[in-house]
Design goal:
The chain has 423 residues and is α+β, with helices and mostly antiparallel strands. The protein folds into 3 domains: 72 residues; 158 residues, Jelly Rolls (Sandwich), CATH 2.60.120; 190 residues, 3-Layer(aba) Sandwich (Rossmann fold). The chain has 11 helices and 22 strands. Strands 3, 5, 6, 7, 10, 12 and 13 form a 7-stranded antiparallel beta sheet that branches. Strands 1, 4, 8, 9 and 15 form a 5-stranded antiparallel beta sheet that branches. Strand 21 and strand 22 form a beta hairpin. The longest helix is centred in the N-terminal third of the chain and has 29 residues. It is globular and about 55 Å long.
């Protein structure tokens, strides 16, 4: 549509030039015509008709040109490329190995962009002070950086107070030429503490004088969301779930989680909203949370194994009563919703303690598979990873602890999800 607008705009400009020539010709031609009583030239009939038609066409093309040019100017849209939920509380910088450490968070940027804005979460009890924040291109996956450092400002200042129990804090819209690939988000907190969340990968701590040190399985910092202004038209996919979606059991520092692998497979932005220990009984807020994510048009929901393990859900009807309304609400909001079947868990001690848990998993999966008409689709993770000789358990080559997949298992999950989304 943008290309068409440019072409029409060029055509329109050409006709304006033609109009100028015709009007000049009109003035010359009128020198040989008569002068009316008011002292104005009166053109001959044929020339008058041509000018009238041309003016009508110019008026139409002016409207078309304005519309298409406006679309070209509005070609960039905001997209959420990173988000984090399930903060665990305050983290002391001593945990990072240095009270004066700079935190480096690897962020895979899935699209090119011209502007960036960062959302900061606040605490229920602790005040924090962010001293400075910046984006810089990653030189490798070992925490080293290269090239220019692009600061992120808050009301024009590098430092910002983050008071407890306050509203979310939004950065200025920063003109940062982010390109697709691995970047580092650098943060330094003057309070020597900040929020943190569990993460299947991790971050790098950099002491004032020293090399980056990898710290696995946590993600410090108050950053809850990163949005990019991008010309890329592809919408954002949201993966909502528990520790399986988060990527527990994958190799730390490799970003080998199924949402990340799905994004690379589809060449499309995918955000990971998996939280360790999350349950279907806490899903009520999903529809409203999705609306805060820029460009999100598709949701993949995979939840339920923790409800089965803890006994918070005891029947498939209870699961339906919790998940069905979420599905319907997201759909009413104009977004696509895909349900994922619950993975096998036989071999995990807590799951094996009660045979009724496997029966419940099968009943819930049967309900999920019946929702292909109500949902936009069903992604059968269970079928993809289960052992054909013992369907209650994962294949040996796909599991890390019989409850969570390993790298190969997450790769398989991404493959089956991509296939469903592409159909």
């Amino acid at each position: 549509m943008i290309a068409r607008g440019v072409a029409l705009h060029g055509f329109f400009v050409g006709l304006l030039s033609a109009a100028s020539l015709v009007q000049s010709s009109q003035r010359i031609a009128l020198l040989g015509d008569s002068i009316n009583e008011a002292g104005s030239f009166t053109p001959s009939g044929s020339l008058s008709t041509i000018i009238s038609l041309l003016r009508n066409w110019l008026a139409v093309l002016a409207v078309v040109g304005a519309v298409t040019t406006g679309q070209a100017q509005q070609g960039e849209t905001w997209k959420t490329v990173f988000t984090k939920r399930g903060f665990c509380g305050p983290m002391e910088m001593a945990w990072a190995g240095s009270l004066d450490a700079t935190l480096r968070i690897p962020i895979e940027i899935p699209v090119d962009g011209s502007k960036v804005r960062v959302h900061l979460a606040t605490s229920h009890a602790d005040d924090f002070t962010l001293e400075k924040m910046s984006f810089v291109k990653a030189a490798d996956r070992d925490g080293h950086v290269e090239g220019a450092e692009y600061p992120v400002l808050f009301s024009g200042s590098a430092a910002v107070e983050i008071p407890a129990r306050s509203a979310e804090i939004l950065s200025d819209e920063m003109e940062i030429p982010l390109t697709k690939g691995l970047w580092i988000l650098q943060q330094k907190y003057a309070t020597q503490k900040c929020l943190y969340a569990y993460d299947a990968d991790g971050y790098f701590s950099v002491p004032p004088e020293g090399e980056p040190q990898f710290k696995k399985h946590s993600l410090p910092g108050n950053v809850s969301q990163i949005d990019i202004l991008s010309p890329d038209p592809r919408p954002v996919i949201v993966c909502w779930g528990d520790s399986i979606t988060q990527g527990y059991g994958s190799s730390a520092g490799t970003d080998h989680r199924y949402p990340s692998l799905l994004g690379k497979s589809l060449n499309q932005p995918v955000v990971n909203l998996g939280v360790n220990g999350d349950q279907a009984i806490f899903s009520k807020g999903i529809p409203s949370r999705i609306t805060t994510l820029e460009g999100a048009e598709t949701v993949i929901y995979l939840m339920g194994i923790n409800d089965i393990l803890t006994g918070s859900i005891t029947t498939a009807k209870e699961y339906e009563a919790l998940v069905g309304p979420v599905l319907d609400a997201v759909k009413r909001g104009g977004r696509r919703f895909y349900l994922g079947t619950i993975l096998p868990a036989k071999g995990h001690e807590k799951f094996d303690a009660d045979p009724a848990k496997e029966n419940l998993r099968q009943e819930i999966n049967a309900w999920i598979r019946d929702q292909s008409g109500r949902a936009d689709g069903v992604i059968d993770f269970d079928e993809a990873l289960r052992d054909p000789s013992d369907p209650a358990k994962m294949k040996e080559e796909f599991q890390s602890d019989w409850l969570h997949p390993n790298d190969a298992g997450y790769r398989k999950m991404a493959e089956v999800a991509a296939k469903v989304l592409q159909n």
